[in-house]
Fold this sequence. Notes:
Elements: H1 2-13, H2 19-33, H3 38-42, H4 51-67, E1 79-80, E2 87-94, E3 99-100, E4 103-105, E5 109-111, E6 114-116, H5 119-131, E7 135-141, E8 154-155, H6 156-159, H7 163-178, H8 185-208, H9 213-238, H10 244-257, H11 263-270, H12 275-283, H13 291-297, H14 302-312
Parallel strand pairs: 1-8
Antiparallel strand pairs: 2-3, 2-6, 2-7, 4-5
Helix pairs in contact: 1-2, 7-8, 8-9, 9-10, 9-11, 10-11
Amino acid sequence: MRNCLGVLLLLVMLGCQxxxxxxxxxxxxxxxxxxxxxxxxxxxxxxxxxxRSALEELPxxxxxxxxxxxxxxxxxxxxxxxxxxxxxIVVAANPRNLELHHWDFPVVGMAPYKGxxxxxxxxxxxxxxxxxxxxxxxxxxxxxxxxxxxxETLPGGVLSLPATQRVRLIFxxxxxxxxxxxxxxxxxxxxANYFGNLLARRWFEEAEGKKGSHLLLLDRExxxxxxxxxxxxxxxxxxxxxxxxxxxxxLSLTLEQxxxxxxxxQQNSVRKWTLxxxxxxxxxxxxxxxxxxxxxxCDQDFQVLRWRIRQNFPGTP
Length: 317
């Protein structure tokens, strides 16, 4: 209960807010209040498919993250048993300049997405943006990070994900807890994806060896992401506000004909690729920044990495 009060206090301290903050605050508090410990869940005879093995693995995964230098704190000591999406985000792009729309928030600064607890509220924001001649989409969110402000629960839906996706996602969110720069979603999300991939490879290699099935699958997923990345960047070299509709249609045909190595790659090949989807994918692009070189230069120390990012990249607060 003390954690729930802390969340409310934090959100109240953010200053002049709308019902958007109140809605999201109540959602976080409600999920925390209804959460359960892994041991409580493991004592049950029946659990959703995949939960038991994921729950048994969770403390080992968190300890691995801590030893790697991530700020685990009290994160994921309890499980949010609600398997619905944690929230819904609205993403919008301006077709006149092919750029993402940004919202300005207290504490975290500018961001190219806005979250809502309820789908209908997200749809209302989407419709408002459509009325302003934006292209807007709504996406479900499976996990979140408090950036270290409070010990967040692990959403139950994460436990149902395939192992490679679950491990990558948990590491991704813990990276946000460790390094975060206000108003730099492009840097934050790319950083979290790169180290989510890196730590997941280490995790599966230590657990199963270099020829383990999960490591093989993970490498295929990462390779498919690199293939997709090349297609998306080739698209951006040629598109313009006048040709973007035709370019997107051509992209869909190209992706359907590509040879993909993983189920994730196959799913990406048939998804609906819109202007906001492509621009947001690039926000999360693990290869958009020279993380590998920086990581080696920093002797694989997250504290040094944070300092180097501030020094090397103008605009990081």
